[in-house]
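Shipment paperwork, digital attachment
Item: protein structure file
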Amino acid sequence: MSVGIPDVLRIPAFRRVWLASVASNGGTWLQAVAAGWLVWELTGSAVVVGALALAYRAPALLFSTWGGKIADRHDWRAVGIITFLVQALGALALAILFWTGHITVPVIFAATIVIGIGFAFGLPSVLALVPALVPVGRLQDAVALNAVGINVARMVGPMIGGVVLAFAGAAWCFLLNAVSFLALVIALALIPRLNQGSRVPKRLRAAVSYVVHDRAARRLLVGMSVFMLFAGPVQELAPVVVQRVGGGPVALGLLLGAMGTGALMGAWALTTLSGRGLPRHISISVATLGFGLALGVVAVSPWLGLTIAGMVVAGGFWIWLPTLTNAAIQMSSPSELLGRMLGFYQLSVIAPIAVGSVVFGWIAQRIGIGWSLGVATLCLVGWGAWTLFNPVPEIDRDIRTIRN
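Attachment content:
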């Protein structure tokens, strides 16, 4: 056995998909840096910058549950290939339009919406694919490693994006994002066709009923929604934060990369503490409180260095929420509802960020980014404290308890 290589990465199909996902997530951050900076330069409006996040995530408001239904009825691999190709075309269109001198704010928004539609329809299938690629005993390791990969991309992608944007231009950020989507298409194409889902009922009613009547599912989805509503805007409004402390494109990349750096440290801390018996339902509350306090530092900081330090700590707690929530849903949901439950999970992540970015962008436009993030801080700390004193231990259920 080689030292330092997680056992789950020894599974060839999962390893290929994981590596391609890291590349694709990195490409997404290159595009986010370039598009956000372009919109800020063209408009000078925090509201419009926040609205760009809504353009990317608004399709999730409409299509996440449909994406879950598709995941429960069709080949996950094929759905992923089609939706990643759509996203690649959207990114390529932005690169071409920039090079030809036709880039405008409406064009950026239109292409972003197209990419968001592909993302909304495809993510439940890609998430549901993980249990099909790894043994049940390795599922939590695979989910955790996926979260680490996302945050490796979060650390490296924005920094590379800032450098590419500063020295090569936005078009190259868009082009590299398109290429990164193609890496995932190739990885999925190498997986044999999966014939699952045709026996599953078409309606969402069963999944909705499960969420309504299951206390753990309710707390997980509501908790994720609340967290993303108040925590997500700090990333989308990062160009405004950077402008306040006197930074440029490279500083923007460093600021966003700081969250990824913190997330890697947070992933290690979560693994260590979980191994020592820290319950999942307690970890979620602690992470909410920790992120809220770190966000407070970003809200009041007048210096780039202190702001970056606050983002590192925030990133350390950020990774806990999606890792723990995703793992809990995959390990406790009935198999016939898994795609739709992951669709609800996607909705609980994407939709609140979209709404929160617009709302807090509007607040920042009127009373300043510091006050805007300060309001979010108070809400996160309040929610985290309430959940800590009103725990739901059922969140720690194991998949085998439900499915055996």
